[in-house]
Design a protein that fits this description.
The structure is a homodimer.
Chain A lengths: L2 H11 L3 E5 L7 H11 L5 E5 L5 E2 L2 E2 L13 E4 L6 H11 L3 E4 L9 H17 L2 E3 L5 E4 L4 E4 L7 E8 L2 H12 L5 E6 L8 H10 L5 E6 L5 H14 L2 E5 L4 H11 L6 H11 L2 E3 L2 H13 L7 E6 L2 H13 L3 E2 L4 H10 L10 E2 L1 H7 L3 H12 L5 E6 L2 H8 L6 H10 L11 H11 L3 E5 L6 H8 L4 E2 L2 H39 L1
Helix pairs in contact in A: 1-6, 3-4, 5-10, 6-7, 10-19, 11-19, 12-14, 14-17
């Protein structure tokens, strides 16, 4: 990508002014887009273009772009497909720098749409306008409070950036991750990629200082080689998470219909992803899980996991999940076991998983959990800890409708206060441990429902998952990426050594 | 299993009176168990046994079991392990029929515990007492309002029954399924299985008329052959869902420590499960997903799926998930496409997945969704429908904290009322369609958060999942079980034919 394009994308993501085609005072996509821009608190100038109304949602509107007295940085276009070429011509006349085209009915619907799309490309090229879409849902840059999206989506601010070939999937994933405290910096729904491509955005994000984690939902690429090249550049400096859609014949056919892209062989992608250090997500939920893991957790330096649980079955399932994901259930040293013996009840499992049993969980002070976890984190044979916790309030909430007697309900609630494994009250101490020992801690909330305690853990850098398999899978990907980085560094060091030797020889 | 044992288990699950050892007026496991029995609204007699207090939680208590004036059906024992033998002796003197032993510190902790466990077995055998546990969490029979559990768990009433080698995992799974409207009839946390085994419970549930779906969390079996035999009997008449823990070396080691069971080879289990029509769950979440699917949905008669979505990416991922799970993304006939053309916007995908696009989802009356789904269900080439819906309120709830301006928030909420894909208002019509066409419908709530609309769908027999992979996986298991039943029926028919021919020949 030439310097010119980096500069262009910088302008696309940082417009000082926006012209909006297709907003009105009725509820339609252009209007929702304007609402979203306002809701995001964009500070630049906004010029709605409307043939009749002189204001849209209280903002001064102009009949034509030529009536706008200034040159505009970004045009957002939400008009019927057949009108897009003339709007683009107007943009050229104004000197607009970039455009986002929401409109659909282009190449994704067949030959006629394809011809129209080519006309738009031709006009844009003529005027030097680079554009996102068509058939896309827009862009975000939280650094300048810009949420130029056609659906109502305001993500949390942060350092994850995402490119998605499905706007719906991308925006929903952002909001789901936001609700777990993950923040986003930039987002693009790339649509048909008539002009700007997935690869352009990724390359831009690689050099973008506000982006620390890159995520992509990819149905297909127009230029496989370039995609792999930018992926390689990305993973050198930032975790790059990819959810690949269209990995089967059926999915590939659907992808072609969706954005006109060709999907390519899953095996080829998988092999290339592994080689290049790309973190591959299995489905939309796994993608959010991985985003959370990589934006919150530190990376493990080895594969040895300690599993801390009060439910033996969960210990067994976590062990299975660890082994299936290439992790190792750490063999505890005699010293570690002896130290644990001093504080745990006699019936604990005396090994890893560290199972304090349900009786243990119900009968002793939860501070012992924190002490046990400290013993595990300080043990040389342990690289990371997966521990279970339980949202008791959520459990009661699900169950109470089944209890007819109000008195009993109240007794139950009082009786169990302070009982069971109560991570919430010990959350801050657990976070301190993670900070002190610099080993990843992953939490499994075995109740199946997130709650307030999880938010505190997650804000403290301990991601929480609802299943043992999710926890082990994310931890294994954190390890995979660290191992990739180490290998990369070794290669670079070896190359340096070679150069040193060469220099010495030639001296 | 002899008739005698069926009778014994019938008595275990249907006690008219309970003696409870280990409850007091302080919070401990026995006390929580009594609370749970009371909360469950058990109608039989309860005799707490306590050396000093003459009442426990307001119920008349007795110093010794011999002071109880009547013969007792069930003893629930929550005393230190070393005291269990003498309690069992007291039970024999009373003529107690069955026992549930919560106490831990038996065979799961080593040789000494194993000897103690053998002593308990010997005493029980002498007195003809069959018992659950030790190291278990209890039993449930909602037909008689019995929740004899050591943790506070009151599941919804229904026709699913479960045996779990992890009490915590079992009770949590029941409550998670309950919160989706799944009801349970019987439950056993089988613990160390010193006397009654997993296989006994399963065989009992096979002939139990109140049980229509059987679920088991299995870490290991004591008698593999008998387990497979009862599994075979089970699947002939009822869906039998198994989550197998200890499928790896690490998991198997953990399982041995947990309940002393040997785990066995995963490949052997997998092959046997497939052969016997067992429905295998991948993890604890998948188990709840499958319970929901099998207790709510009808079974598909073929593998052809129609996918209805307003998010193209979700259509692609669902297509991938279907193919990966052995389902077929149905090729729509020209007739079906032409009929859909009449009501869908021109930019719909004109194929399967039926993608009405985000623009479509946002711009037209949600009644069109119902009409489209009816066209799909009535099509001969479609055996089942997976459709997407969106919890808009949940989405807004997650997002609103990110919006600083209250006015904009309110405008956004008003602006979007009645917009987007609104399944909730059409839920009843969708359920009617499923009833009329007798084809399974599976819903994917793409927002990632369940809400009220899902409850209505699920109560109407349409299970809702949060990911495309979960939906496709459950649907594939529904098909797998129907295909198993059909194969089974064909074999039986062929055998009948053989007998007919034989009869005719010998006549």
């Amino acid at each position: 990508m030439s310097y010119n394009i980096v500069e262009k994308l910088d302008k696309l993501f940082n417009p000082k002014s926006i012209a909006l085609f297709g907003a009105s005072n009725k509820i339609k996509i252009g209007t929702i887009s304007l609402l979203t821009i306002l809701a995001g608190d964009y500070k630049g100038e906004i010029y709605p273009i409307h043939p009749r109304d002189d204001n849209i949602l209280g903002i001064k509107a102009y009949p034509k772009l030529k009536d706008v007295p200034k040159q505009v940085d970004l045009a957002i276009i939400s008009v019927p497909a057949k009108n897009v070429p003339s709007v683009m011509e107007d943009c050229i006349d104004n000197g607009v720098g970039s455009a986002v085209i929401y409109s659909s009915n282009f190449s994704e619907v067949g030959e006629e749409g394809k011809r129209l799309e080519e006309e738009v490309i031709r006009i844009a090229k003529k005027g030097g306008i680079r554009f996102v879409g068509p058939n896309c849902m827009g862009i975000v840059n939280t650094s300048i409070n810009l949420c130029a999206l056609m659906n109502l989506t305001i993500p949390r601010k942060g350092d994850v950036s995402m490119v998605s070939q499905s706007g719906t999937l991308g925006t929903i994933s952002m909001i789901n991750a936001s609700s777990h405290g993950v923040g986003f910096n930039k987002f693009v729904s790339s649509g048909n990629e008539a002009d700007l491509k997935m690869e352009d955005y990724i390359e831009y994000l690689v050099q973008d200082e506000d982006t620390h984690v890159i995520v992509a939902f990819v149905e297909g690429t127009r230029n496989g080689k370039r995609f792999i090249d930018v992926a390689e550049k990305a993973t050198e400096s930032k975790p790059f998470i990819i959810l690949k859609g269209g990995t089967t014949t059926a999915g590939s056919t659907a992808a072609h219909s969706h954005t006109g892209s060709m999907a390519g062989s899953d095996q080829i992608y998988d092999a290339l992803f592994r080689q290049k250090g790309v973190i591959r997500a299995n489905d939309e939920q796994d993608m959010v899980n991985l985003i959370k893991g990589f934006s919150k957790s530190i990376l493990p330096i080895g594969k040895n996991v300690a599993i801390y649980t009060s439910g033996g079955g969960f210990g067994v399932l976590t062990s299975d999940a660890c082994e299936k994901n290439g992790l190792n259930v750490a063999k505890l040293s005699d010293e570690t076991i002896n130290t644990l013996n001093k504080i745990l009840p006699p019936f604990w499992s005396h090994g890893n998983p560290i199972d304090i049993t349900a009786s243990g969980g119900m009968s002793f002070d939860s501070r012992i959990n924190v002490e046990s976890m400290e013993i595990l984190l300080s043990a040389e044979e342990v690289d990371s800890v997966i521990f279970m916790e339980f949202n008791f309030d959520g459990y009661m909430e699900k169950m109470l409708p089944e209890i007819p007697n109000e008195d009993i309900k109240n007794i139950m609630i009082v009786a169990t206060e302070g009982g069971l494994l109560d991570v919430e009250s010990e959350t801050k101490k657990i976070i301190e441990l993670k900070e002190r020992y610099k080993k990843p801690m992953i939490c499994v909330n075995i109740s199946g429902t997130y709650y307030g305690g999880d938010k505190i853990l997650e804000d403290g850098g301990i991601p929480v998952y609802l299943t043992t398999s999710d926890a082990a899978h994310v931890l294994s990907k954190l390890l995979y990426y660290n191992e990739f980085l180490n290998k990369k560094r070794r290669v670079i060091d070896e190359e340096k050594d070679m150069i040193d030797i060469k220099e010495r020889i030639t001296k």
